[in-house]
Structures are given as structure tokens and as C-alpha cells.
Amino acid sequence: MSHNISAMSNTTPSIETSASEIAAITPAHKRALSYSTTIESLFNQVMNTGMPADRIIGQYFREHKKHGSKDRRVIRESLFGLFRWWGWLSQLETNQKHTTWFQQLSACAMLEQHPWPDVTGAWNDFADWPQTRADQTTLDNQATLKDKLAAYIALSAIESCQITQLLPQWFWQLCPVDSTEQYALVNAMTTRPPIWARAQTLSTAKLIASLKQAGVEAKTSGYFADAISLGHKSINLNEIEVYKQGHLEIQDLASQVIGQICQPNNNEKWWDACSGAGGKSLQLHSLMSQQSTEFSGSITASDIRHKPLEELRKRAKRAGFEHISVAPWKGEVLPVDANAFDGVLVDAPCSCTGTWRRNPDMRWLDDASAITDKPMLQLAILRRSAAAVKSGGKLVYATCSLSPSENEQIVKDFLSVTSEFELEPVIHPFTGEQFDMLTIWPQQADSDGMFVAKMRRK
């Protein structure tokens, strides 16, 4: 993943406020000021280092264990909310830096509808909004994205704000979206990301019953028999027994589409060529296990990084999956035998634009090069990995990108230089339509975005 922030230096400057410039009159003011200082520091770390926000905030909480659950929630949700709405918030400007910052916090809290009136009320006081504008900005729980735009314009007096500004301009250039779908896409990208899971070694019904007993909202997906929706609220997985025992695996619904498209049989040999920490390797194993008690197939997982492969080993052990082995990439040499696999999955490195919903900071950290610098690598990986597919075998190419240059174009370029493979049509699991190549959009079923194409060796 590319985090090139040099191009953003003029549009996303670090925020610099001074606590000494603010008069904290009440205890609520003092708490709100303390929160704002922490959030400001974390925001600037993300912008200045280009490190993912979830990594920076995770490290902060590990080093500051004094924070209770409310503190952590206020800090985390405010930080991610700022990135979600930064396309609008970055346009705010006053004569005082600290006033601009509190206006950004205050407006973000309004748009996110944060349930901390003591904190948000203090931020509103520090923001020093003109009273006539502040009175026009009440939003209820049914507020739409259009309602939020209207409220933000009323509060900020920035008449030029548009819904499409919530994603960077280069995204719209490199990820063309039909005008009729732009609103729905931005609406999905500005809502809390869902938590999807997959039943792995227990039935879906037993898992849902167990989760509900533990106080976790859970229901079936309606699309895949083993997919489980865990809602949109944060969950401490370390307190969930079925997760600790390997019966449940967290995996986004769009990611689950990939394994379903692979359609692995339990007597087949599969190679997950870019496995990362192995979410799709585990899914392949689970799908194969569900078919019969006699498991005669195997899965080999490869990656150039050793740490994710170690994580895969732990996850496979926790689930009791004995048919997954690891073969690290070492240079450009194929880490597995050629012409040996019934199926090869190439989940290629990409810009990850499809995951912006859960990583809203990335839309402001990356620039167009996050997309434009990947295609040569993606094509090289696909061509190299294809050598492992045996005659009649399946080759599945996937990314979590929404850009045609990383998706359809790679498949077309691959097929133009080899006559050994041909496309197989795939059915969209959420609409039932048939496509030569499939893009899952975040607004279609409350998920991330993914691309997948399925080919077969002649």
C-alpha cells in the first residue's frame, strides 16, 4: 500500500493549536480540551508520517492504558470521523488556528452525531460559531447525507461544498463511477464500516446463538450460508469465546465473495499466491471442509512477508485446520511446483480503495500514484502465478481496488499475452446478474469494495 503524502502537503497541513489560548471554564471544558489535544496529536501523526490511523491509535492506547472505555471511544471515533468528513472539514478557515480546529471537531461531531453532549457542547463553545448559524444545524437519527450537507453548509457558510468532495478528486478520475451511483457510494463511504464474520467450524445457527448469549448483535447475511453480520458497533473479540476457539473468523462480506467465486472442492489442491495473514486461505479450507468429512485436498499459502504468514499459522492452529501449509516467496522464483494446482488465487497488492470505508485516512494520505504505480507489479504477479495452474485448473484474480486499471485492464492485458487461459462468467452474489468480471461496490450489500475475475486453463 502506498502512502505518498507529499502531494497533499498544501491541502492537508498539520493542525497546530495551543491549549494556553483556550479558557477552560467548567470541568466539561477541561475534559473536552484534554480530548482535543490528544486527537490533534494523533491526527497530526497520521498526516505527518503517512502511517495508518488504526496503527497509530492502537499504539497510543497500548502506551496509555489509563484511558477508560468512554475515553477510548471519544478519541477513536472523533479521529476517524475527522478523516471521514475531511473533504469538507479541511475547507474551514478562521483567523485563529485553535478556532479552526474546534470548528472542525464541532462540525465533525454534528455530522457523526456523537452521543457525548458534554464534550461536543464544550467544543461548540470553543468553536465560537455565529449563533444564527449554530441554531440551524440540528440533525436527527434519520438524517441523510443530503441533510448533512445542508446542515454543514448552514453551519460553515461554505456554499461550494459538494458530496463528491468527500473523496479526493483523483479518485473520481481513476475510479470512474456512474453519476447515478456517486451519491450511494459516498454515502456508504461516510457511514461506519460493518463487521462481517464467517462461521468456520460450527454451524451458523449455533454461532449466532452463542454470540447473542454473549451480548453481541448477530444475524445471517442472506447471501452466503456461513456469513454472519455483527452490526456496526465495536466489539472486543478477545472476550468472545467462539472467536478465541477458532469457530468464528472476521472477514468482510466482499472478501467472502472471492472464496465463493473460487468454488473449491474438498479434493483439490489450491495455492493462495498472495495470502497475507491468510483470511482467504482459511475461507478456502472452511468451504472445502463443509462438503464432506473426508478432506483430501490441500491449501498452500505464500507471501513475501514472513510476519503475516506467522499470523496465518496461528489462525489455522486456532481453527484446527491441518491442511494449510506455508511456502514464502523468495525473489521471483515460483515457491510452489508449476502445473500442480487445481486452483490458484491471486489476491494482488493494490491501492485498497475498496477498503476506504474502514480506513478513511487513506483517501487523504494516498495520491493517484497509489493506483498508477501498481499495474506492472500486478500483471507480473498474475503471469508468474499462472504457471502453477494445471490443465483445466482455475485461476482467480482479485483486488480490493475500485480502479479498472488495477482490475479489468490487468486481466485483459494478461489474456492478450497468453492463449492458455479463458474467462469464465461469474454471477454477482448480491444482484444475480452475470458478468465476465465482477466489481463489488460498498453500497451494494453494506461491505468493502472488491474485484474478482475467474479464468480457466484450457
Automatic annotation (TrEMBL):
Stated name of the protein: RsmB/NOP family class I SAM-dependent RNA methyltransferase
Source organism per UniProt: Shewanella vesiculosa
Residue intervals of the SAM-dependent MTase RsmB/NOP-type domain: 183-458
Any single biological process term in GO: methylation
Active site: 400 (nucleophile)
Keyword Protein biosynthesis: no
Superkingdom as given in the UniProt entry: Bacteria
PANTHER family according to UniProt: NOL1_NOP2_SUN FAMILY PROTEIN _ ANTITERMINATION NUSB DOMAIN-CONTAINING PROTEIN (PTHR22807:SF61), NOP2 YEAST -RELATED NOL1/NOP2/FMU SUN DOMAIN-CONTAINING (PTHR22807)
